[in-house]
Amino acid sequence: MESQAARAALRASAPVASIRAADFDALFVPGGHGAMCDLPQNPELGRLIADFAAQEKVIAAICHGPAALIGAHLPDGTPLVRGRTLTAFTNEEERATELEHLLPFLLETRLRALGARFVTRPAWSEHIEQDGRLITGQNPQSSRLIAEAVAAALRE
């Protein structure tokens, strides 16, 4: 029964192209390995993230979720992450999962190549980075910390 309800909810999801940053206070992108294949390939998601940034709204992503940031660019074409301090699932953590050969790229490597100031802590540590309204978490262990940081940013 629960899976039927979940499937129905997914079918009723609004397409990303129909979502407007003006209608929300924050955007939260969860992780998971699937994010590595789906999120960077979605130009509408990149546009939405860029709109959130332009409106100085909270953008949060955890684990593999920061893969969504790869497709976001400033109006001049500069990657949104260039010069920004952030974190995500690290190369070390990816290698520990032994799944890196199934992924199109290593997230830490790609974000660094785009000019992000990528900060790591030991594998599986609770760790977030906040750069203005951009809040990122290194791994699932960082869930509580990122939730608290998002809540605090929304209260500001």
Sheet with most strands: strand arrangement: 1-2-6-5
| Secondary-structure element order, N to C | HEHHEEHHEEEH
Overall number of structural domains: 1
Count of beta strands: 6
- Number of helical segments? 6
Instruction: Catalogue the unreliable spans.
Output: none
Shape: globular
The proportion of residues forming helix, as a percent range, comes to 25-40%
Estimate the strand proportion: 5-15%
State the separation between the terminal residues, measured CA to CA: 40 Å
Mean pLDDT: 95
Class from secondary-structure proportions: alpha/beta
Biggest β-sheet description: 4 strands, mixed
Q: What CATH architecture would you give?
A: 3-Layer(aba) Sandwich
* CATH fold naming: Rossmann fold
Description:
The protein is of the alpha/beta class and 156 residues long. It has a single domain, classed as Class I glutamine amidotransferase (GATase) domain (Rossmann fold, 3-Layer(aba) Sandwich). The protein is 35% helix and 13% strand. The protein has six helices and six strands, in the order H-E-H-H-E-E-H-H-E-E-E-H. The chain has helices spanning 2-11, 34-38, 43-54, 91-97, 107-113, 143-155, and strands at residues 26-29, 58-62, 85-86, 117-118, 128-131, 134-137. The protein has a four-stranded mixed sheet with strand order 1-2-6-5, with helices on both faces. It has a two-stranded parallel ribbon with strand order 3-4. Strand 5 and strand 6 form a beta hairpin. The protein is globular. 35% of the residues are buried.
